[in-house]
Specification:
single chain, 312 residues, alpha/beta, Rossmann fold, 2 domains, seven-stranded mixed sheet, 11 helices, 12% strand
Length: 312
């Protein structure tokens, strides 16, 4: 028994050692808790910050367009006048002077928003037309496929399409006579040109171009020089049909014909846009206002005297 007791060892833990281990665990637990809370607060704050910034950005970019894709305030008068001034002072020898830019600009300013503006021809004024029709729909049609693609690449905000013209200036009189003969069939004044085989109608544009109710149309292309040039008979005829065939919007369409002093522009304009609709013109720019017509209308002009000057 005594031998057994002599080999027995008693281990005692001092209270201080136990207290020290518990204290370390508490400090570790407190540290982990603090770190976790700080991490959660940081995460929540960051998510709220990103959400608020995204909402603010979305409001800034799409705010008015939630009501209308082209909503927004019009350009101030001082900005418009400045654009016209510098555009008319361009060094390009083919630019329009101020006397031609101003009438088109005035019509665009009075146009209800969003304004639908169709332009035949990519010209030195292309960027100006896009800027003046601020918040509106502006579409350009050009005869040169490569130039249209190049221009869109250079200016992504420009909406341009190419068209293959099938006319020649030397055929102007024959084409006008053919359209008058087909006035009750393929060359009707009121129709959807997308399905038309009229020689003067443009029927290979994107579908949506024919569905838009255009408020303003400018004809400044294609080339109008030389007997083999395409001339502007097709754009003039097409513009007249688009104006008369509108389904909604303003019943009146403002159509501007540039280089009106030339025979093709004058003959086609008088025949298909009509002298009775000519409200203003100078040596180079004619301004027509063409009204919507009923579907069963079979005359381009209400007055028979319109074609007298063309025939002569």
């Amino acid at each position: 028994m005594g031998k057994l007791n002599s080999n027995t060892k008693l281990i005692l833990l001092h209270p201080y050692i136990q207290k020290q281990g518990s204290s370390n665990r508490l400090w570790l637990l407190a540290f982990i808790s603090f770190f976790t809370i700080a991490f959660l607060l940081t995460l929540i704050y960051t998510r709220e910050s990103i959400t608020s910034k995204t909402a603010a950005t979305s409001t800034t970019v799409t705010g008015p367009s939630s009501i209308s894709p082209f909503g927004g305030a019009p350009l101030p008068t001082t900005v418009i006048n400045t654009l016209l001034h510098y555009a008319s002072k361009s060094n390009d020898s083919f630019h329009m002077p101020h006397s031609e830019l101003k009438p088109i600009s005035d019509v665009l300013r009075k146009c209800s928003s969003p304004c639908n503006f169709l332009i035949f021809g990519l010209t030195p004024e292309t960027l100006l037309w896009k800027a003046l029709n601020h918040n509106g729909r502006t579409v350009f049609i050009d005869e040169n496929r490569y130039y249209a693609a190049y221009y869109e690449e250079l200016h992504p905000e420009i909406d341009a399409y190419d068209v293959q013209y099938t006319t020649k200036i030397s055929e102007t009189k024959e084409l006008i006579a053919s359209a008058k003969e087909q006035i009750r069939n393929e060359c009707r004044p009121v129709q959807n040109l997308l399905f038309s085989e009229c020689k003067l109608g443009i029927n290979d544009l994107p579908n949506h171009v024919y569905e838009v109710d255009w408020d303003v149309i400018l004809i400044d292309g294609p080339r109008g020089d030389g007997p083999d040039g395409p001339g502007r008979m097709q754009p003039i005829f097409t513009s007249g049909v688009l104006a008369r065939s509108k389904k909604g919007g303003n019943p009146k369409t403002h159509i501007f014909v540039h280089d009106y002093y030339r025979d093709v522009e004058k003959m086609s304009g008088d025949e298909f846009l009509c002298r009775e609709n000519l409200v203003e013109h100078n040596d180079t720019l004619a301004h027509f206002v063409v009204e919507r017509m009923e579907e069963n209308s079979f005359q381009y002009c209400r007055s028979k005297n319109n074609s007298t000057s063309s025939s002569s």
